[in-house]
Design a protein that fits this description.
Belongs to the LysR transcriptional regulatory family. It is built from 10 helices and 10 strands. With 296 residues, it is an alpha/beta fold.
């Protein structure tokens, strides 16, 4: 019989790429991970890993087993959801991840509703960039999260994560000048830019939008908080891309020019967890909070 904990290690190796990364994710030593994977190979009766230089890669049999491991782990999530439903009252921790604009605009009302309707739930929010969410879900540091991507740079789906759509937003060019409605990005070719921290989704999207217009942005400032971004724009420090959720209180003098680019927000959770009553309650609460926010 294959051990579920070892299957999870193999699945995470397929996702993270190195034994060192798997060890860090599980707070094991690399040698402990290697030993557990060696035991899994003996259980499977076929080689699952092979070394290419200093790297370890999956054999064809290892790839097949990872696919089945994902099915098994999703089934365990579904079983946990069924047991939680059988217990009745929602209780215990619900670890929620979200990006900053969602924490500021959509989450507060959802948290109030969840606390009112399910007082035994322990709601815990962590602010993080969407690129970090799949790993945090796999490591069970999060149970559910709000994530986003952009139509100009869609994120490759993660097989370990399921998601439901929540919100589509217009993306604006924030600038001190009125710009051109025909080619607003093109008019910023010689402007200074305010972009997100390298490695974030927003940083990558800004580069992609400018490249699509035929130039690389001249980056002057890095800022991840859109209130700070808009303040810098108002101070004449550059231009930036800003999503709709961040534009409610734009400072005087900032012009917001709508672009064709859209930002898509989704609610993400581990594969198989959609029927967990706490996840379902969160989905309903944040959907209602989003509808209310947009109505105002």
């Amino acid at each position: 019989m294959l051990d579920v904990r070892r299957l999870r290690l193999l699945r995470d190796l397929a996702q993270l790429g190195t034994i060192a990364a798997v060890a860090k994710a599980h707070t094991y030593t690399p040698s402990a991970v290697s030993q557990q994977l060696a035991v899994l190979e003996r259980e499977a009766g076929v080689p699952l890993l092979e070394r290419t230089g200093r790297r370890v890669v999956l054999t064809p049999a290892g790839v097949v087993l990872v696919r089945h491991a994902e099915t098994v782990l999703a089934a365990l999530e579904s079983a946990d959801a069924a047991l939680a439903d059988a217990r009745g009252e929602l209780s215990g921790p619900l670890r929620i991840g979200a990006f900053p604009t969602a924490v500021r605009t959509l989450l507060p009302a959802a948290l109030v509703a969840l606390g009112r309707d399910h007082p035994a739930l322990e709601l815990m929010v962590a602010e993080l960039d969407p690129v970090a969410v799949p790993e945090a879900l796999r490591e069970r540091r999060l149970d559910v999260a709000l994530v986003h991507d952009y139509d100009i740079m869609p994120v490759e789906p993660d097989r370990t994560v399921d998601a439901v759509p929540l919100l589509d937003e217009t993306v604006f060019l924030a600038t001190r000048s009125t710009g051109s409605d025909d080619d607003p990005i093109g008019t910023t070719r010689n402007a200074d830019w305010i972009v997100g921290t390298p490695g974030t989704v927003c940083h990558a999207v800004t580069l992609q939008v400018c490249r699509a217009a035929g130039f690389s942005p001249r980056v002057r400032h890095h800022a991840d908080d859109f209130d700070a971004v808009l303040a810098l724009v108002a101070a004449g420090q550059g231009v930036s891309l800003v999503p709709q959720l961040a534009t409610a209180q734009a400072p005087p003098g900032v012009h917001l020019i709508p672009l064709a680019t859209r930002r898509h927000t989704k609610i993400a959770y581990r594969q198989g967890a959609s029927s967990h009553p706490a996840i379902a309650a969160f989905v309903l609460a944040v959907q209602a909070a989003t509808a209310t926010y947009l109505a105002h």
